[in-house]
Amino acid sequence: MVFLRCALLILPLFSTVFSHEDEIHTVKYTNDNFSEEVAKKSHFVMFYAPWCGHCQRLAPTWEQLAEMVNEDDSNIRIAKVDCTTDSKVCSDHDGEEELGGTDVPQPMSGLIELTEDTFDGHVASGKHFIKFYAPWCGHCQKLAPTWEELSKSLEFDKGVSIGKVDCTQHRSVCNNFDIKGYPTLLWIEDGKKVDKYLGDRSQEALKNYVHKMRGANKDDKEKSDHDEDIPSPLNELTGDTFEGGIQTGLTFIKFYAPWCGHCKRLAPTWENLSKKFLSNQMVSIVKVDCTLEANKQLCNDEDIEGFPTLFLYRDGKKISEYSGSRSLEDLYDFVNKFLGHDEL
């Protein structure tokens, strides 16, 4: 008799929608009849849970196998046991333990490919730098060799693991972490998201980030988005310099007043946003003080009616007004969207 723990299988996705009502050939055993029936013939038994993704994907193939094998004169039976309703059978044959298993695949040159079955168990403890990606994403494809190089360089570093998750195959993991674009790089500690990496995607920048996060204490983590050691490239435009300052690339402008409370709260975030684009020559993060006499006409011409007002310009033309959350992460994602970064 052969037993199958379906949660340990890695199977291709099936496009066919399959329900339990379609399973007319597979023999279903319970606590009451399992021992008696398996003593009569050889069996190939799948111990499963209805909520198990791999089990659901295996179901059509398992039913096809049963249709071919489960003839009256056959000495083999293709069967299954639902471990959520008949747990005693599964426990007796170690099915329940296997269904709950989270065996993590061995890393290839330090890089671990995680799935819906292995993700939670793997990141539950320790420090992890995870790339959430889609195979069709151009930016993901460009990052792939750099990510592999990063993992290889840290292959023997026990203080951190480098992993990746294909969001087209393991969407539930990506949904749990609110992945909105590809690639998304998250720093996870003890199962919880600590930081989203927003910096340059060069090998050197990524490795420096890992070393910084590995040695970060609690206070450092809270400041990880601030990069206080990086000089600010934030420029302030005036009525005289405005036209020339927005002529090339993307220019994200904060129109503000020094006395405005919301402007004051946004100021450090706006400063840090400018640092995030320090190495990108196509993006400028700037500000305009609308209370200065030299800028009053400019702010009037740009239809500034309240503070702060955040406008995005491309090659000298206004293309969008930002009205979303004023977190660093959301502001960064907004600019990246207009740079052409892949979105879900």
TrEMBL record:
Keyword Glycoprotein carried by entry: no
Secretion signal, residue range per the UniProt entry: 1-19
InterPro entries tied to this protein: PDI (IPR051063), PDI_thioredoxin-like_dom (IPR005788), Thioredoxin-like_sf (IPR036249), Thioredoxin_CS (IPR017937), Thioredoxin_domain (IPR013766)
Keywords, comma-separated and alphabetical: Redox-active center, Repeat, Signal
Domain named Thioredoxin: residues: 102-215, 228-340
Keyword Magnesium among record annotations: no
Xref: PANTHER family: PROTEIN DISULFIDE-ISOMERASE C17H9.14C-RELATED (PTHR45672), THIOREDOXIN DOMAIN-CONTAINING PROTEIN 5 (PTHR45672:SF3)
Record family assignment: Belongs to the protein disulfide isomerase family.
Protein name: Thioredoxin domain-containing protein
Lineage: Eukaryota, Metazoa, Ecdysozoa, Arthropoda, Hexapoda
